[in-house]
Amino acid sequence: MPTELLFRQDAYLKETPATVEAVNERGGIVLDRTIFYATGGGQPGDAGHLRRADGNLIAIGTTIYDPEDKSRVLHVPLEGQPAPAPGEAVTAILDWERRFKRMRIHTALHLLSVVLPYPVTGGSIGDGDGRLDFDIPEGGLDKAELAEKLNVLVARNADVTERWITDAELDANPGLVKTMSVKPPRGSGRVRLVAIGDIDLQPCGGTHVRNTAEIGLVAVTDIEKKGKQNRRVRIALA
């Protein structure tokens, strides 16, 4: 059975009851439902714990999609952790502090793609910092100027909302996709659009804050030349 992705419904869930469906040969734990984001789209997998009925904890180091069945999520325990039994009831507990930093920086990167309206060739999200790579014909980018424009958008206190469209609707509107290297998650027949007020609209399967006010001040920490037309812009929560 596919894992129910609760983080797609509510990115603010910090814990949930779940049932162990399977444990693979490498110790990856499959739950029937999860709040843990699985690695993808430049965003790393979540960490946290599974609390067993006796109160003991299983430390989860990261979360990935099952390579053999992309509809299932594997919770990868740290080395030396005990393995639960299929059918066992557990409580999944998210490392919320780390996740919330990623949500803030991920939403800020969406705004950065508005400040720099160029094709995005790559990107990654860290714990309070991140980057986007842009296909920009010319250099001359200024860190202070970019940071000022970015923080003006943050300060608009825009609501971040989601809605779903069909694959066919996305195909009919290819301009919605800004990223050249990372494609929006497909395969279920529908794609999630993330809107930031009237500022930005693009397909994305990641986790975001509910309002740009939650991002706080953002600094542009570096601008690197990664090729003739490629510029890497790094940002961090100030």
Keyword list:
alpha+beta, 238 residues, 2 domains, Threonyl-tRNA Synthetase, Chain A, domain 2, 6-stranded antiparallel barrel, 4-stranded antiparallel beta sheet, 4 helices
Short summary:
This protein is α+β, with helices and mostly antiparallel strands. Helices cover 18% and strands 39% of the residues.
Could you characterize the architecture of this molecule?
The protein contains four helices and 15 strands. It is of the alpha+beta class and 238 residues long. The chain has two domains: 91 residues, Elongation Factor Tu (Ef-tu), domain 3, CATH 2.40.30.130; 139 residues, 2-Layer Sandwich (Threonyl-tRNA Synthetase, Chain A, domain 2). Strand 6 and strand 7 form a beta hairpin. The model has no long low-confidence stretch (mean pLDDT 91).
CATH superfamily of the largest domain: Threonyl-trna Synthetase, Chain A, domain 2
- CATH-defined fold name of the largest domain: Threonyl-tRNA Synthetase, Chain A, domain 2
Euclidean distance between termini CA atoms:
42 Å
- Low-pLDDT residue intervals, each spanning 5 or more residues: none
Strand content: 35-45%
Give a short account of the largest sheet.
6 strands, antiparallel, barrel
Amount of helix:
10-25%
The helix tally amounts to 4
Rg on CA atoms, Å? 19 Å
Please specify the SSE layout and strand pairing.
Elements: E1 4-5, H1 6-9, E2 15-23, E3 29-31, E4 33-34, E5 48-51, E6 57-66, E7 69-77, E8 89-94, H2 96-115, E9 120-125, E10 129-135, H3 143-154, E11 160-166, H4 167-172, E12 190-196, E13 200-203, E14 218-225, E15 230-237
Parallel strand pairs: 1-4
Antiparallel strand pairs: 2-3, 2-8, 3-7, 5-6, 5-8, 6-7, 9-10, 10-15, 11-12, 12-13, 14-15
Helix pairs in contact: 2-3
